[in-house]
């Protein structure tokens, strides 16, 4: 009897040891899941006219999610309940993405006005009229709001009052075919950098608007636009251009270091070793940051792609006539996607594992995206 108990005890140890050993050797399966938990029509009333472009990136501010559509203006939802908190009608709607600082939102509109909005009350603080549509995201730096208008003028306003401090005007571009868009300015070491539809990248003194240098990057005979925001990395600037090229240039004087034949209107994503960029031909590519050499490329058949967004070991981008795509960073392989209908022009906002974006139809979506890890051996699950 004692022998039998001892044998049972040893067998139990052996089995536990086997299971433990198996667990150590089993590589769990990682399945990436995307679940929609919220969808809401953002329009105040149904649209029965022609479709417009909805491309604003939602703004997450405390307990609010703020989104604008290209038809009737801005709306804020409670992040937890999803109930509408307030709505601000804006003639001709908004397409430009916005920035929020403290309790204030700054956003340009299709009617040519730049607005300051009190987020706690949902009311307009001030409006500055440029007489030309604004589809570019503004930049707030040291109390000054910088933005590019549709007339290719770079404005600097006092953010608290909306008073104009200075303006930089480019040459007349009416004889040049341009793409509807605009560059979000960038700030570095006292200078403001912005791209324009005449194909130039310009560096200006942030306080006075005095030009420091400019470089002509895009000499395309058809479209010359530089609608992407400059991205800084050390002594270099990475900028996308509508001549289907991505440029790496010196921050000090604009000298071109290298250029890659993959480019468009989107702002590139720069990491420690790789630059991720989407093109006007519906491609997304990973490029070596030092040389511009291609590491991988994925081509979509569903329109152009939005600005790339990093999430864990993935890159997220939307198709203008298709889905929101989730691709592996190291290979470009698609691990999952989400179909909202009518495409995605909006770069998503990310909070934890929650994504928010507006679809081409004007619906805002909330997605939860995560890895579901399971063992490949059923009895170890």
List the SSEs and their pairings.
Elements: H1 2-25, E1 29-41, E2 59-61, E3 64-69, E4 73-78, E5 84-89, E6 99-101, E7 104-108, E8 113-118, E9 123-129, E10 139-141, E11 144-148, E12 153-158, E13 164-169, E14 186-188, E15 191-195, E16 200-205, E17 211-216, E18 231-233, E19 236-241, E20 245-250, E21 256-260, E22 269-270, E23 274-278, E24 283-288, E25 294-299, E26 309-311, E27 314-318, E28 324-328, E29 334-338, E30 349-351, E31 354-358, E32 363-374
Antiparallel strand pairs: 1-32, 2-3, 3-4, 4-5, 6-7, 7-8, 8-9, 10-11, 11-12, 12-13, 14-15, 15-16, 16-17, 18-19, 19-20, 20-21, 22-23, 23-24, 24-25, 26-27, 27-28, 28-29, 30-31, 31-32
Structure write-up:
- It is globular, with a radius of gyration of 25 Å.
- 6% of the residues lie in helices and 45% in strands.
- Among the domains are: 27-42 and 302-381, no CATH class; 178-299, Lipocalin (Beta Barrel), CATH 2.40.128.
- The strands form eight sheets. It has a four-stranded antiparallel beta sheet with strand order 1-32-31-30, with no helix packed on it. The protein has a four-stranded antiparallel beta sheet with strand order 2-3-4-5, with no helix packed on it. A four-stranded antiparallel beta sheet has the order 6-7-8-9, with no helix packed on it.
- The chain has one helix and 32 strands.
- The chain starts with a helix and ends in a 7-residue tail after the last strand.
């Amino acid at each position: 009897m004692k022998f039998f108990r001892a044998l049972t005890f040893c067998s139990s140890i052996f089995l536990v040891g086997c299971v433990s050993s198996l667990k150590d050797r089993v590589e769990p399966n990682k399945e990436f899941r995307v679940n929609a938990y919220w969808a809401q029509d953002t329009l105040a009333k149904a649209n029965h006219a022609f479709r417009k472009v909805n491309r604003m990136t939602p703004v997450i501010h405390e307990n609010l999610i703020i989104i604008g559509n290209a038809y009737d203006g801005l709306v804020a939802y409670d992040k937890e309940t999803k109930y509408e908190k307030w709505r601000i009608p804006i003639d001709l709607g908004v397409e430009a993405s916005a920035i929020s600082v403290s309790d204030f939102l700054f956003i340009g509109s299709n009617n040519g006005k730049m607005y300051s909005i009190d987020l706690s009350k949902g009311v307009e603080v001030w409006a500055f009229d440029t007489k030309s549509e604004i589809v570019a995201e503004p930049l707030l730096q040291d109390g000054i709001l910088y933005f590019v208008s549709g007339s290719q003028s770079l404005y600097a306003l006092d953010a608290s009052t909306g008073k104009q401090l200075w303006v930089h005007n480019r040459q007349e571009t009416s004889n040049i075919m341009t793409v509807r868009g605009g560059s979000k300015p960038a700030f570095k070491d006292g200078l403001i950098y912005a791209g324009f539809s005449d194909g130039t990248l310009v560096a200006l003194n942030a306080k006075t608007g005095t030009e420091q240098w400019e470089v002509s990057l895009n000499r395309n005979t058809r479209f010359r636009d530089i609608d992407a925001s400059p991205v800084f990395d050390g002594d270099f600037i990475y900028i996308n251009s509508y001549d289907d090229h991505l440029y790496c240039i010196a921050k000090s004087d604009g000298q071109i270091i290298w250029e890659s034949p993959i480019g468009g209107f989107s702002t590139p994503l720069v990491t420690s070793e790789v630059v991720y960029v989407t093109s006007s031909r519906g491609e997304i590519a990973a490029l070596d940051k030092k040389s511009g050499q291609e590491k991988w490329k994925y081509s979509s058949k569903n329109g152009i792609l939005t600005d790339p967004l990093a999430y864990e070991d993935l890159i997220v981008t939307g198709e203008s006539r298709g889905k929101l795509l989730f691709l592996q960073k190291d290979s470009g392989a698609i691990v999952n996607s989400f179909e909202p209908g009518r495409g995605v022009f909006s770069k998503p906002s990310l909070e934890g594992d929650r994504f928010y974006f507006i679809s081409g139809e004007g619906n805002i979506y909330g997605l939860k995206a995560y890895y579901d890890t399971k063992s490949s051996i059923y009895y170890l699950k």
